[in-house]
Write a structure and sequence with these properties.
Pfam families: FCD, GntR. It comes from Streptomyces anulatus (Streptomyces chrysomallus). The chain is mainly α. Helices cover 63% and strands 6% of the residues. It is built from 9 helices and 4 strands. It has helices at residues 5-18, 29-36, 40-53, 71-95, 98-117, 120-136, 141-157, 166-182, 185-200, and strands at 56-59, 63-66, 158-160, 203-205.
């Protein structure tokens, strides 16, 4: 049975994000094909896709290698997410389905329960599912693809601290869902912008020795123009 290239791509990407392959290390087609039990053809296709996404670079005399992003490039990812997630929420308010709302409300309910119990690992997964579903509700394939890629790359480059008050964080997510349910695009955008900005402050580079460490602080995007008042914590 031929394993499709996108499955091989997902497997390699997951291993890069989890640190199986160190930054700068070579990715030879032969070794990858052996590891994933496939021919070199889907591996070659997967590496091309991962290069277009920024996870892999091709170097002269070395071939495919895991990319080594700078601190500035890492900071840019957070800034892009702070700009794109509010757009996705605004689109979701206009295009969401009842199925999207049901899933979003269910995730908020579970998140609030886990937060009260202090179940941190569950909260991390639930938060990821929440924002993935919110992006899906935007109904924009291009935006969904960009946000998905950003999530992967941010998870690769950053560790995320748990919020001091996770209950507040989930209350904020609940308010976003309420705005989406009412079709209030501007409020959904504003609340999500605040949420994303708070999230940026909880991110810590996994490799503090990356190039550009002194010149690339974590960006902050002001959301004061929205005039929204809501208690909240992190992403």
């Amino acid at each position: 049975m031929r394993i499709p290239a996108h499955s091989v791509c997902t497997a390699i990407r997951d291993d890069i994000v989890s640190g199986v392959y160190e930054r700068g290390s070579r990715l030879t087609e032969e070794l990858l094909a052996r590891r994933y039990g496939v021919s070199r053809v889907p591996v070659r296709e997967a590496l091309r896709t991962l290069e277009s996404e920024g996870f892999v670079v091709t170097r002269r005399h070395a071939g495919a290698c895991v990319a080594e992003p700078t601190v500035q490039e890492a900071a840019d990812l957070l800034e892009m997410r702070m700009l794109l997630e509010p757009l996705g929420a605004a689109r979701a308010a206009q295009r969401r389905t009842e199925a999207h709302l049901k899933v979003l409300r269910g995730l908020v309910r579970l998140g609030q329960e886990r937060a009260r119990r202090g179940e941190g690992e569950d909260l991390r997964s639930l938060g990821g599912w929440f924002h993935e579903t919110l992006a899906q509700a935007s109904g924009s394939p291009g935006l969904i693809a960009l946000l998905t890629q950003l999530r992967h790359k941010i998870a690769w480059m950053y560790a995320v601290e748990q919020p001091a008050r996770p209950v507040d964080s989930w209350a904020e997510r609940g308010a976003i869902v309420d705005a989406v349910a009412r079709g209030d695009a501007e409020r959904a955008r504003a609340l999500t912008a605040q949420h994303a900005e708070r999230a940026a402050g909880a991110h810590r580079l996994r490799r503090p020795d990356l190039p550009g460490r002194r010149t690339a602080p974590v960006p902050r995007v002001s959301t004061s123009q929205h005039g929204v008042n809501i208690a909240g914590a992190r992403h």
